[in-house]
Amino acid sequence: MANVSGDSTSTDTTKSSKIDEQQLSQPSFPNTRWMNITTDFSRNPGIFDDVFKKIKDLMPPAFEGAKLSVTKMLSSHFQVSHSMTLSNSSTSGYKFGANYLGTRLYSQSEVFPVILGDMDPNGNANAQIVHQWNDKFRTRLLAQVQSYKMAGYQLSMDYRTQFTTTTLTLANIDLMSNSGIAVLQHLTRVTKNLDIGAEFLYQASPMIPGKHIGITSFVTRYRGLDWFTGVKLSPAGVFNLGYFHQKINSPLQLGVEFEASLAAKETSATFSYQYDLIKANTTFRGMLDTNGLVTAVIEKRLTPLPFTFMLSSSLNHAKAAYRFGIGLLIG
Questions:
Q1: Domain residue spans in the chain?
Q2: Minimal CA–CA distance to 112: which of 88, 138, 94, 136?
Q3: pTM
Q4: Composition bias, kind Polar residues: at what positions (predicted)?
């Protein structure tokens, strides 16, 4: 009986492992194919600009007035959206958007190329193209049009290794007027918990004294079990300090950010949070800062319908200004 039981357990384990392998081999996006990945990126630190990303993502997406957005999937790769906003701000009106997701799958949540765009009747448009050429090289192209005229563009290139990421960004390069911006960033994983990086920004313009300027910045991030803290320092006198905390399986996320500029003699601190009521399908986001600004957004998903109801409020104590918004997202 012992031998029979042992054989049965071994057979069940083999079947289970085969099923797990089949599930992992199935792409999470339909009509996509897995691309060949030759490098283990589990200890890659990410890009320089994402050091404070988790803290920034806690900021509530406040808006004013009434907002209606309808998203329609036309295929497994293409979707369109229609948005209408009624408010006193310059962003009021109709906006059309379109998104395309490609067929090259590099992880359960990353598929390329990605093409995003939106436009409004006033001749304003934004476009973004992100493509992963191989497991190490990625490019991002952004373009903006305002009042039917080209307002700017930006090209970024990321090169990843197992422990480092190097990014080169070129923005609004104009050889005729000798103007433009170039940014070189590098972030590396020093230990299991420590990342350090550096950034060099070069800008050329006839409007700048001396016609060009260069700024260097340094950043470090230390990770704990359920928290991380980051520091960004520039010799020009700019200082950023951030802290993020979330316990494992906790619905509460907390973020604190402190910014100081010695040249402008200004300082500010921001506290933000996000709380997910999973059983109620509701998300709360809030933020307050030392300038007297208090913002809160509530998102309620009306399952099983594809509706999301939103309430937004913002109060600026220093300016005695109050904004309120109500929105409905469909799709």
A1: 48-330
A2: 138
A3: 0.85
A4: 22-32
